[in-house]
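Project outcomes to date are best conveyed with an example. Our students and postdoctoral researchers have been running inverse folding experiments weekly, and each run begins with a structure described purely in tokens. The record below, which covers 202 residues, was selected by the lab manager from last quarter's runs and is presented without edits.
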């Protein structure tokens, strides 16, 4: 049972940390080696299905076969993550032709290098749904505040139980010492007259 509780606590802590980092890092201007984006379409399935989270890292150059994330990232516009199928350089500017693995044709417009956010290093399926929910007010309360309070309460309960256990042990040790002392006195009271009688008889 303790092992199960330990594993559940670890998983809960990881979810809280990931969701907290995703929500709070941009607000406090924290710098990360990766950018995290949520995939909202199935154009890269099955490699990157809808609802995945992609971890993006900028690079100085990209190659054919790389999955890159590009385009504006605003409240009304979501960047795209597609695979590079060809590269063209014109007047010193590199342009990438991209295509979603699930799409039948390449994207209609090329992407200039200065519009690329970075290369997708790896992705986690379905986590995007959780992180997207965590960015809402209800999600923040239910996924960050409540689990955090549950962890704190669980630890406090453990501390209280340990304190109670220590008090019980101390009471038991005290009772044993009293019992041992009384047993010693009783032994002395019984044995002393017998020894005195034996000495008088001699």
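After processing, the design step wrote out the following sequence:
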């Amino acid at each position: 049972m303790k092992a199960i509780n330990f594993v559940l606590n670890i998983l809960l802590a990881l979810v809280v940390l990931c969701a907290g980092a995703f929500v709070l890092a941009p607000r406090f201007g924290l710098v990360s080696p990766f950018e995290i984006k949520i995939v909202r379409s199935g154009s890269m399935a099955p490699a990157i299905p809808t609802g995945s989270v992609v971890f993006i890292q900028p690079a100085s150059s990209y190659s054919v076969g790389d999955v890159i994330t590009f385009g504006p990232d605003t409240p009304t516009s979501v960047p795209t993550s597609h695979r590079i199928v060809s590269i063209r350089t014109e007047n010193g500017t590199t342009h990438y032709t991209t295509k979603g693995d699930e799409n039948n044709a390449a994207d209609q417009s090329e992407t200039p290098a200065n519009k690329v956010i970075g290369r997708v290093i790896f992705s986690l399926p379905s986590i995007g749904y959780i992180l997207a929910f965590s960015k809402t007010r209800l999600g923040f309360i239910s996924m960050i505040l409540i689990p955090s309070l549950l962890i704190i309460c669980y630890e406090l309960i453990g501390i209280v139980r340990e304190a109670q256990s220590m008090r019980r042990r101390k009471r038991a040790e005290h009772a044993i010492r009293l019992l041992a002392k009384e047993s010693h006195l009783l032994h002395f009271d019984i044995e002393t007259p017998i020894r005195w009688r034996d000495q008088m008889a001699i």
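The chain has a mean pLDDT of 80. The first strand starts at residue 35 and ends at 38. The training component of this project remains on track.
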